[in-house]
Design goal:
Blueprint: H1 2-17, H2 22-46, H3 88-96, H4 109-117, E1 128-132, H5 140-154, E2 164-170, E3 175-180, H6 183-188, E4 196-197, E5 200-201, E6 203-205, E7 239-242, H7 250-257, E8 263-270, E9 277-285, H8 291-298, E10 302-303, E11 306-307, E12 309-312, E13 325-326, E14 347-351, H9 356-360, H10 362-376, E15 382-386, E16 402-407, H11 410-420, E17 424-425, E18 428-429, E19 431-435, H12 437-441
Antiparallel strand pairs: 1-3, 1-6, 2-3, 4-5, 7-9, 7-12, 8-9, 10-11, 13-19, 14-16, 14-19, 15-16, 17-18
Length: about 450
Amino acid sequence: RGGDRDRGSDRDRGGVGGRGGDRSDDFGRDRRPRRSRSKSRDRSYRGRGDRRDPVLPSRTSPSPRKSRRRAPSKWWDVAPNGFEHITPKQFKAMQASGQVASSILVVDPVVAAQTMGGSNQLTRQARRLYVGGVPFAATEDNLLSYFNEQILSSGLNTCPGPPVLAVQINLDKSFAFLEYRSVEECTQSLALDGVVFHGCPLKIRRPTDYAPLPGSLTQPAAYVPGVVSTVVPDSPYKIFAGGLPSYLNDDQVKELLQSFGPLKAFNLVKDTMSGLSKGFAFFEYVDSTITDQAIAGLNSMQLGDKQLIVQLAAIGSRTGGGTTVQLQVPGLNTATIATMAAPATEVLCLMNMVTPEELLDDEEYEEILEDVKEECSKHGRVKSIEIPRPYKGNVSAPGVGKIYVEYFSMGECAKATSSLTGRKFANRVVVTTYFDPDKYHRREF
């Protein structure tokens, strides 16, 4: 029995000291490392602030000890050129005090020149142009070559080499985008608006995402001879031509207008849905001194069954007196285009509504008179209406082709003018002007 106790005590010592059987030895090695790992993990998470309820990470979670420090970003906290010696806090303070511009693209002149000429993303929006009306047979290569040749031959480039770097064409919608090497050459290329490519005039515009750069030009300073722009900006020499037959196309109308001199800009207004002419156009001559001569020669010209109405169309004309024409054409977003300053009266003159041939027929004349009276009465009290008719076949009699409506007050006449201008009558755009009441009563049309 004593030997048994000795052998039992030996087994106990072997279990504690690790010198016993295989099972006791394996169990002892397994428990100690587990207890050590748990304590180490517990200490690591307690260090993160979770002292009361530590949560052990899963086996798939990366160990904090093995995580590497992330390399600093090459985009964040990069000082602008010339400001490397100051801290971001000092830089913000200088911006707040106005010592530094709130947005700086490039400061160094050498870097600025490279940025303006290179393919930097900061200037990409200002180095692109939209080209509309591209013919179906066009390719990116021949369109690229064509524009580079036109720019170089017109002297619109600022340095040797091709100014256009890339072309993207969408033949389904007949437009393309050009990307230039510099902002200045891109702006100067706007002077090519209206250039003819494979028999089709091209419309050159800024893209919708265009963002002008500070200090850069937004309009071209050069004029390309022989190129008629499709955009007619407001100027003292902008001309309006109404009463154009709807069957005349751009080339036919330009041929008529160019009989007085070369055109600088021309736009025949068309319906956006059908593409047909609305019967009026805006244009400007290269030589502004022939503006008055062209107006005098074109106004009241007979074209088939239409009589042209040609007059200045720019806001704030260079001459005083005369008539006031208020043109409000749907789709043009122009509230009022006044050609010459004159006070409002109670007599309204409606133009571009009737033809001499329509007035010869008595029945048709009565219908026109009734329609005009009914529509004009919606805007005020009509006192009288006069529609001059051809006398014994004389279609050039005074006032023929115009309709005069007398209201009881100038306010009613002004309301009618605002409502009727730009309306359509027999597929013609209505043009209105005030008329002298004394001449109206004396029938001096």
